[in-house]
Amino acid sequence: IVLDVTADAQVFAANGLSPDSVDVVLMNPPFNDPGRHRGSPDQARRTAHVATEETLHAWVHAARRILRSNGVLTLIWRADGIADVLAALSRGFGSLSILPVHGEAGRPAIRVLVRAVKGGRAPTQLLPGLMLNDESRVPKNETMEILEGRAALPLVER
User: Fold this and answer.
1) Are 65 and 11 in contact (CB under 8 A)?
2) Between the CA of residue 27 and those of 107, 112, 134, 136, 141, what are the distances in Å?
3) Could you say which DSSP state residue 110 is in?
4) 3-state secondary structure of 41
5) What global pTM score does this model have?
6) N or C: which terminus of the chain carries fewer CB neighbours within 10 A?
7) Residue pLDDT, tens place only, 106-149
8) How far is the CA of 43 from the CAs of 10, 39, 51, 69, in angstroms?
9) Within-domain flag for 1
């Protein structure tokens, strides 16, 4: 199914995604900051990579609409935009688990993975960070196991 995430509920329903109909949404919305990222001259590529002020809210709204009560949304975003993620999820979601993802040891997180439950009420958890590379910039064993499907991301199931 190919849909515009900003389409109305009738378009989603016509494509088998009616309100309150799915258990899990995995989301990788465009998240590059337009102030720091030069978008492609190709409009489709720019739309796929560079976020607008409305991007995150539109994507979360679409997920909230199709998720069942207690359904799970998992998304990735820039670590420096965590406040925007929390604001977008504040309407309708709770039981957040936040996994900071660090590109290099000893450096700030570059991304966050966030797991949220529609209607969830459990306290938010900030999980220990996932370090992609060691001090030598070599991918860590844990990272390789996840990428190869031999291990799961350490996001908490509630």
Assistant:
1) no
2) 25, 12, 27, 31, 25
3) S
4) coil
5) 0.88
6) N
7) 899 999 999 999 999 999 999 999 999 988 889 999 999 999 99
8) 26, 9, 13, 36
9) no
Structure-token match 């102030």, residue found = 35
Alpha helices in the chain (DSSP H): 9-14, 43-49, 55-66, 82-89, 141-147
Give the domain range for residue 25.
9-147
Q: Cα(56)–Cα(61) distance, rounded to whole angstroms? A: 8
Residue 109 burial (CB count, 10 A) = 18
Radius of gyration of the chain (CA): 17
CATH number of the domain where residue 129 is located: 3.40.50.150
**79 and 109 Cβ atoms separated by less than 8 Å:** yes
Extract long-range pairs of 54-61: CB within 8 Å, 24+ residues apart. 55/29, 55/30, 55/31, 56/29, 56/31, 56/81, 56/84, 56/85, 56/88, 57/88, 58/5, 58/6, 59/5, 59/27, 59/29, 60/27, 60/88, 60/89, 60/93
Spans of the chain below 70 pLDDT: 32, 34-37, 39-40, 42-51, 156-158
Q: What are phi and psi of 100, to 5 degrees?
A: -70, 140
Helix, strand, coil percent content, the chain, rounded in steps of 5 = 25, 30, 45
